[in-house]
Design brief:
60s Ribosomal Protein L30, Chain: A; five-stranded mixed beta sheet; 2 domains; alpha+beta; 12 helices; Spore Coat Polysaccharide Biosynthesis Protein SpsA, Chain A; binds magnesium ion; 368 residues
Length: 368
């Protein structure tokens, strides 16, 4: 498997690299160039794609892939990054952007710490490391200068874009890179990256938080009910102040729990007449909004509905879709389960329906 698709600390190497740019305030557009025939694999690796990410098919070598990616971008400044450097940090991106205030092209670089030697016919010969730097990516360019360098380069292949821009006569500069921004090259590099990512060294806030919710509503003979935001036809109804959708109530409580925002009763008191018969989607939508204001974004939701009746199975797909829609998630990140309690207890006797939910959120950088 190409190294950019290999798993690393819970997601693919490529997804790590994309995430650093996705969370950078000045990054407007991300173009991922993949080798011919690898688009589907890349999509799998990226998971739920942000709207700002575009996939293009590149060529057989680095230069043609870069050409294809740059052609698909529209911004006046372009940063070109090796996906195999997943430990890129925000300050390196900032330094490259700052360097572009002065130069046509900029590469992050770190000094050479080790003594260097050349082995030739005369044996081992020391090499002076003064003025030598190790360049990294992302390499940044003013778009016009890059387009000019690309057109001048013709079919020639270059090891990186700074070399190509140099050949085209661009004004270039180096800015501080980061030792942690190393390129995954050897098998041991994956172990090292795994440890560093686990320690949160990327500068990207990767804290996840979890909340749980539980709710019960009474079941009585009636003409159907709303459950997990879906209308179910049944000779039963859930009884409560709002539409009594125990599924959405449990999810709302779980989300509020993850965001540290109390419970549904504090935000929507059952004594408030405004919520009489209300569509419970309103509660969850409100929870999504205030959680976002607190820096918590849902990334996953798991629900268990506990009842003998109605049958949940036929409605699971619609419930997944509706809950995902309200939470702003891909349906793949929502799971709906159902169980009975073997005729035991209030759920077993059909007196009520219970719902449990777990919501996982990612905390963004603004979160305390
Ligand atoms: Mg309730």
């Amino acid at each position: 498997m190409p190294k950019q698709f290999r798993p690393l600390a819970g997601k693919s190497v490529l997804a790590h690299s994309v995430a650093v740019f996705e969370s950078h305030a000045r990054c407007a557009e991300i173009v991922v160039a993949v080798a011919p025939g690898q688009k589907a694999q890349a999509m799998d690796c990226l998971g739920a794609l942000n709207e700002s990410v575009v996939l293009v098919e590149g060529g057989d070598d680095r230069s043609s892939s870069v050409r294809a990616a740059v052609a698909a971008s529209t911004q006046s400044r372009v940063l070109i990054h090796d996906a195999a450097r997943p430990l890129l940090t925000q300050p390196v991106i900032d330094a490259v952007l700052e360097g572009l205030e002065i130069h046509d092209g900029v590469a992050p670089a770190v000094p050479v710490a080790d003594a260097l030697a050349r082995v030739g016919e005369d044996g081992v010969e020391p090499v002076d490391r003064t003025d030598l730097w190790r360049t990294q990516t992302p390499q940044g360019f003013k778009r016009d200068a890059l387009m000019d360098a690309i057109s001048k380069s013709g079919d020639r292949s270059f090891p990186d874009e700074i070399s190509m821009a140099r050949a085209a006569g661009c004004g270039l500069g180096l800015v501080p890179g980061d030792e942690a921004n190393f390129k995954l090259t050897w098998p041991a590099d994956f172990d090292r990256a795994e440890i560093l990512l686990g320690a949160g060294s990327t500068g990207v806030e990767t804290v996840t938080v979890t909340g749980m919710g539980y709710d019960v509503h009474r079941l009585e003979p009636g003409e159907g009910m709303a459950l997990c935001g879906v209308r179910i036809a049944a000779p039963l109804a859930l009884v409560g102040h709002s539409d009594a959708d125990a599924g959405l109530h449990a999810i709302t409580d779980a989300l509020l729990g993850a965001a540290g925002l109390g419970d549904i009763g504090e935000h929507f008191p059952p004594t408030d007449d405004r919520w009489a018969g209300a569509d419970s989607a309103i509660f969850l939508q409100h929870a999504v909004q205030i959680a976002a204001e607190a820096g918590a974004r849902p990334v996953h939701c798991d629900v268990t509905l506990i009842c003998e009746r109605p049958k949940i199975g036929p409605h699971k797909a619609a419930m997944k879709a509706r809950v995902a829609e309200i939470l702003g998630l891909s349906p793949a990140r929502v799971n709906i389960k159902a169980t009975t309690t073997e005729k035991l207890g209030f759920t077993g006797r059909g007196e009520g329906l219970a719902a449990e939910a777990v919501v996982t959120c990612r905390l963004d950088g603004r979160a305390p």
